């Protein structure tokens, strides 16, 4: 992975920043319970103490990189059964990573360093923390031809103002599969993973947004690795009770609020917009995946999109994909960040000249549901046996879908 970029020179010493909308949820009872019952309630206090011991920006940056990487590895190890569980929360849970990270970013955002921390330096620290704690700097693809190389991505929980208890099975999948070797008909395959934020700004290709993270996060993470990858799958939570292999991705943001309660309605912003296509397509072997017996949830080849036809003015749903010259209004995966990560990853694949040789595309998982009797966010428990079973089954089925895809592309 390319190294983290050096920061620009520090500016004036700014006042501590207000926590973001995402960070402000951290003090609610549910996030605190999740941290306590996983043992991750020590992450932010230990990180704060380490930061307070630093006496210069280079020292602070070293602490941020070390502790961000340590959090990612600790979350992966917990999910994969290494080391202590830290509490009674099931090991497969992705939420401790999410809430612990927010405790760390909130501390960096508010930190009044005695050596003086410029705005650009603070943004660089936040960017480094985001990337390292998401596994984005930890993709270690093996060399040689004896093992095939797979990249899988997931997302943070989202719609947390609707239900702050929410877990994201795609993030749980990333933690469960990172660094694992799976057997396929053509031999072993190594899986490397990363998790992405549910924030428009981070995807935008600009820098130093409100989140403090550099934009263009998908391209920054995947560009160094796709030329050496044998298959990639961006994964997110989609529809109730079903998996979808999304055939077509569209260049449109539909405006649904992100985790910072920010909306964006616009064409997906990318580098070199003059050559930007309206649509990109999966190169995953969707027919073989749909036909495979991968788990208890049905898997569909989703071909539907929403477009403004050539010469038209109003959006039209097309069950069989876009028509020539149309303008995107939703891909098969919608018009939110699930669609956008798929669009960006497949556009990057094609701009790298890998369309005909690299299978890749988007997998939508079923919505992760709580058990009957535990559906009310106001009174419900943070977990239940059916919730855990659903998440474990979804994770196992994503793994089986990856195997099916690899078996279809020897």
DSSP summary: helix tally: 12
Which stretches are low in confidence, meaning pLDDT under 50 for 5 or more residues running? Answer: 1-14, 207-214
Structural class: alpha/beta
- The total number of structural domains is 2
- Mean of all residue-level pLDDT scores: 94
CATH superfamily of the largest domain: Peptidase C15, pyroglutamyl peptidase I-like
Question: N-to-C terminal Cα separation, in Å?
Answer: 26 Å
Architecture per CATH nomenclature, i.e. the level-2 architecture of the largest domain: 3-Layer(aba) Sandwich
Order of strands across the main sheet:
2-3-1-4-14-5-10
CATH class of the largest domain: Alpha Beta
Task: Kindly describe this structure.
It is a single chain. It is globular, with a radius of gyration of 21 Å. It has a seven-stranded mixed beta sheet with strand order 2-3-1-4-14-5-10, with helices on both faces. The protein has a three-stranded antiparallel beta sheet with strand order 12-11-13, with no helix packed on it. Helix 4 packs parallel to helix 6. The chain folds into two domains: 113 residues, no CATH class; 260 residues, Peptidase C15, pyroglutamyl peptidase I-like (Aminopeptidase). Helix content is 34%, strand content 16%. With 410 residues, the protein is of the alpha/beta class. It contains twelve helices and 14 strands. This is Pyroglutamyl peptidase. InterPro entries: Peptidase_C15-like_sf. It comes from Streptomyces cadmiisoli.
């Amino acid at each position: 992975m390319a190294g983290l970029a050096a920061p620009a020179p520090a500016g004036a010493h700014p006042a501590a920043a207000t926590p973001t909308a995402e960070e402000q949820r951290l003090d609610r009872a549910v996030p605190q319970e999740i941290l306590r019952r996983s043992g991750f309630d020590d992450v932010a206090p230990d990180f704060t103490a380490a930061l307070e011991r630093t006496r210069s920006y280079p020292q602070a940056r070293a602490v941020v990189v070390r502790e961000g990487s340590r959090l990612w590895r600790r979350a992966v190890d917990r999910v994969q059964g290494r080391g202590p569980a830290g509490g009674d929360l099931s090991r497969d849970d992705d939420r401790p990573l999410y809430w612990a990270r927010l405790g760390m970013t909130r501390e960096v955002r508010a930190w009044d360093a005695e050596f003086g921390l410029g705005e650009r330096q603070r943004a660089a620290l936040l960017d480094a923390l985001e990337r390292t704690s998401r596994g984005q700097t930890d993709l270690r693809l093996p060399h040689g031809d004896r093992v095939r190389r797979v990249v899988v991505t997931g997302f943070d929980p989202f719609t947390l103002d609707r239900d702050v208890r929410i877990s994201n099975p795609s993030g749980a999948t990333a933690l469960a599969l990172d660094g694992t070797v799976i057997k396929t008909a053509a031999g072993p395959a190594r899986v490397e993973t990363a998790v992405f934020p549910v924030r428009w700004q981070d995807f935008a290709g600009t820098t130093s947004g409100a989140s403090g993270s550099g934009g263009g996060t998908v391209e920054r993470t995947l560009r160094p690795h796709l030329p050496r990858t044998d298959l990639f799958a961006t994964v997110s939570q989609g529809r109730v009770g079903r998996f979808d292999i999304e055939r077509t991705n569209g260049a449109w943001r539909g405006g649904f609020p992100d985790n910072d309660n920010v909306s964006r309605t616009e064409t997906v912003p990318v580098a070199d917009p003059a050559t930007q296509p309206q649509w990109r397509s999966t190169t995953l072997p969707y027919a073989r995946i749909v036909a495979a017996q991968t788990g208890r949830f049905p898997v569909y080849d989703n071909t539907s999109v929403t477009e403004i036809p050539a010469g038209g003015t109003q959006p039209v749903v097309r069950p069989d994909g876009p028509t020539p010259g149309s303008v995107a209004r939703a891909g098969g995966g919608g018009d939110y960040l699930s669609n956008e990560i798929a669009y960006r990853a497949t556009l990057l694949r094609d701009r790298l000249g890998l369309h005909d040789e690299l299978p890749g595309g988007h997998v939508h998982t079923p919505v992760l549901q709580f058990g009957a009797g535990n559906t009310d966010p106001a009174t419900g428990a943070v977990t239940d046996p059916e919730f855990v079973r659903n998440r474990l089954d979804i994770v196992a089925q994503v793994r089986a879908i990856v195997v099916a895809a690899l078996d279809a592309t020897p």
